[in-house]
Amino acid sequence: MKQTIQVFVFLFLLTTISAYAQKGNPDAIVGTWLNGTKKGHIQLYKQGDKYFGKIAWLKEPNDPETGKPKLDTKNENAANHSRPILGMVNLTNFEYDGGNVWDEGKIYNPEDGKTYSCKLTLKDANTPHVRGFVRTSLIGKTQTWTRVK
User: Fold this and answer.
1) Model confidence over 90-142: pLDDT tens digits?
2) Is the pLDDT of residue 77 over 80?
3) What is the CA angle 62-46-91, rounded to 5?
4) 108: which residues sit within 8 A by CB, 6+ positions away?
5) What is the largest CA-CA distance in the chain?
6) Torsion angle, CA of 71/57/95/28, rounded to 10 degrees?
7) How far apart are alpha carbons 55 and 38 in whole angstroms?
8) Which of 14, 72, 82, 130 is the most buried (most CB within 10 A)?
9) What is the mean pLDDT of the chain?
10) Which residues of 107-142 are buried (b: 16+ CB within 10 A; e: fewer)?
11) Which helix (H) or strand (E) holds 23?
């Protein structure tokens, strides 16, 4: 009987610890990140219970031909062609999925004008993997970002 109680207590503690460990810190993704191409900084922030990101810095903020700020000229929606890229919200509606994963979001790539489904996975405190994909995460591209200090 004593062994049964010990096993039950052990399993209860193991389950509790495991659930706590998977909970993680939902706001760990908040901060400013150098993207994988090293061409920009993305500021990730929380709004309500969702996470968003905006382009906070560009290595080359101005169009070399005009000398004016780069615009969203590759956007599929012509109404957005006059929208500046710097300051643009390009990550939207991410939900904390537990552990170190933020899912169900979208990422807009101003370099090709397309929006992709996206998943953020924090590998450590300073390194998220950002996976953009179409329909299924098996078909896509992953970038490794780094925290800007």
Assistant:
1) 999 999 999 999 999 999 999 999 999 999 999 999 999 999 999 777 789 99
2) yes
3) 45
4) 88, 90, 91, 92, 114, 115, 116
5) 81
6) 180
7) 12
8) 130
9) 88
10) bbebeeeebbbbbbbbeeeeebbbbbbeeeeeeeee
11) helix 2-23
CA-to-CA distance for 101 and 120, rounded, in angstroms?
Answer: 6
Report phi then psi at 64, rounded to 5. Answer: -60, -25
Res 3 pLDDT > 80? no
On the CB side of 61, CA atoms within 13 Å amount to: 10
Q: Which of 58, 60, 85, 57 is nearest to 71 (CA)?
A: 85
* Nearest alpha-carbon partner for 139 in 125, 123, 119, 124: 119
pTM of the predicted structure, to 2 decimals: 0.82
Residues in Cβ contact with 74 at an 8 Å cutoff, skipping those fewer than 6 apart = 110, 111, 112, 113
